[in-house]
Design brief:
By secondary structure, this protein is of the alpha+beta class. The chain folds into three domains: 100 residues, no CATH class; 136 residues, Jelly Rolls (Sandwich); 73 residues, Phage tail protein beta-alpha-beta fold. The protein contains six helices and 18 strands.
């Protein structure tokens, strides 16, 4: 199919009031199938027909809407928008189906307080902490994961040195050069703890150059929401960042503020304090985790020397005096 017939599709949408001719549309769509000889879009016949019908219906819908518009600049604007819409729809539909047809995406989620063990397609093992989401795609040149919440990774090394990248945000990603690490990615804080092997952290603040840093076993990298950049320190007790997998929480001079955040994001428990200075109170020790809310709160109040009261259905912590 030559470019003139392809151009007619856009012309019919942007310049003409009449509906797009189905034969012209079909010729244009079928020309896309030429790429199948290169193995780019290997769709089944039924899937191709479904995509074709969805695209054609979308164009017809836009054109029906155009007949309700007034003439002049407003009409020109909406016709141009319609053309863009149809092109994006076509590209998005084809791209989405091609992506899912060739590189399947896997989504894993955990509920509040749930610890979920996952075996990825490549053989790597992931443990999700409560209220966490992981999306994983195994591409030809790399394995990619997007994490919200907290997870521990035990990554399988591939013979072709295929990379394994965990994305925390648009600006921050962790590339695995070793095997075992823990990642926390919550609204107020992101953290990477490395137990074995080596990882590379890419951090690119907006309008700034890429900042890369490498972590060795025992290193802990922390991002704070209200602080710029990150901090790396060697933690002799790095194993405590993995203890939640065994339903154990280990504190080492852990602030009450951090504890309150953990309970909120991981277990869905919201707490208030009578005095904001209490958030700075620190404690060390350990207690068992689980889904028993009352037991969790009893352990927390005991470690921090607090008592809990209920105030209009809110849980409030105050000094135990």
């Amino acid at each position: 199919m030559d470019s003139r017939n392809k151009d007619n599709i856009i012309k019919n949408i942007v310049q003409n009031e009449r509906f797009l001719d189905r034969d012209v549309f079909s010729q244009w769509y079928d020309s896309l199938e030429e790429e199948r000889s290169n193995g780019v879009m290997d769709f089944s016949e039924s899937k191709r027909e479904t995509i074709k019908q969805e695209m054609f219906d979308a164009i017809q819908s836009v054109q029906e809407e155009e007949k309700l518009r007034t003439f002049g600049r407003v009409t020109l604007y909406w016709r141009t928008a319609a053309a863009v819409f149809v092109l994006l729809f076509a590209m998005g539909t084809i791209g989405h189906n091609y992506y899912n047809n060739n590189f399947e995406s896997y989504l894993y989620q955990s509920t509040y307080g749930e610890i979920k063990n996952i075996l990825l397609k490549d053989g790597s093992k992931v443990t999700l902490n409560g209220n966490s989401t992981l999306r994983f795609v195994d591409l030809p040149d790399k394995r990619e994961a997007w994490l919200t919440g907290e997870a521990s990774f035990h990554v399988v090394h591939k013979h072709d040195n295929q990379r394994f990248v965990v994305h925390l945000s648009d600006t921050t990603s962790v590339e695995v050069l070793g095997t075992e690490f823990n990642v926390l990615n919550r609204p107020n804080e992101s953290r990477v703890a490395l137990r074995n092997g080596k990882v590379k952290v890419d951090y690119r603040p907006q309008h700034k150059n890429l900042d890369q840093t490498y972590l060795s076993p025992g290193d802990l990298l922390t991002f704070k929401e209200k602080e710029k950049g990150y901090m790396v320190q060697h933690a002799n007790d790095v194993d405590r960042h993995f203890s939640w997998q065994k339903e154990q929480f280990i504190l080492n001079e852990t602030s009450l503020g951090s504890m309150v955040d953990m309970l909120h994001h991981t277990y869905g428990i919201s707490l208030k304090v009578t005095d904001d200075s209490l958030y700075n109170r620190k404690a060390s020790g350990s207690f068992p985790l689980g889904t028993d809310k009352d037991r969790l709160l009893k352990n927390v109040t005991a470690l921090y020397g607090l008592v809990m009261i209920e105030d209009e259905e809110l849980l409030v912590l105050k000094d135990d005096q």
